[in-house]
Amino acid sequence: MGRIACAVLLAVLVPLSLAVAQPAKAPPAAARAQVAVVTMENGGLITLEFWPDVAPNHVKNFIDLAGKGFYDRQRVHRVEPKFVVQFGDPLSKTAPMNDPNMGSGGSDKKIKAEFNKKPFDRGVLGMARTNDPDSASSQVYLMLGDSHFLNGQYTAFGKVTKGMDVVDTIKVGDRIKSIKIQH
Predict the structure, then answer these.
(1) 158 near 48, Cβ under 8 Å?
(2) DSSP letters along 22-43, please?
(3) Burial per residue of 120-132, b for 16 or more beta-carbon CB atoms within 10 angstroms, e otherwise
(4) Which of 68, 67, 64 is nearest to 56 (CA)?
(5) What distance in Å separates the CA atoms of residue 153 and residue 114, rounded to the nearest whole number?
């Protein structure tokens, strides 16, 4: 009887110990976060990490536009010290920076607001819009300082993970050479 109990116990414990000993598998490549690398014409590099968990449509829109080269060769059209660096107006590719319409252009697509709980801290990537909360298109901004009055009023959808020193030196008229999406 004792031998039978021992055999049953071994039959249960051995498979359990093997299952526990198995190493965890790495997530598939598709589950890894996408990032954007912004290359400024002067050679500066900025790496952006996206937050698809809180703003999936904004992330998709930015990635789609960047993949089509929409942002390539655009110029930064707005810099507010300790507040924002803004780009994304296609007029900035060719129009003079003092054009009265500068800062009013966008892509042909509008995105509904995805307000979330991410605070607008220094380095956050946010989506610009008009007074209509559902008017976001292609203009984005990088926060130069904390601006919590924007929380819940605008969509935060990523952050700078490398190159904040580059962001700090950007001036109106500086040109973006390219934005490339990486996995």
Answers:
(1) yes
(2) SPPPPPPGGGSPPEEEEEETTS
(3) bebbbbbbbbeee
(4) 64
(5) 9
Count of C-beta atoms within a 10 Å radius of residue 71: 22
Residue extents of the structural domains in the chain: 31-182
pLDDT digits (tens, 9 = 90+) for 58-74: 999 999 999 999 999 99
CATH of 31-182, one of 3.30.720.120, 2.40.30.10, 3.10.450.50, 2.40.100.10: 2.40.100.10
Give the SS3 label for residue 57: helix
Least confident of 5-9, 103-107, 161-165: 5-9
Tell me the C-alpha to C-alpha distance, in Å, between residue 41 and each of 72, 97, 173.
Answer: 10, 17, 11
pTM for this model (two decimals): 0.83
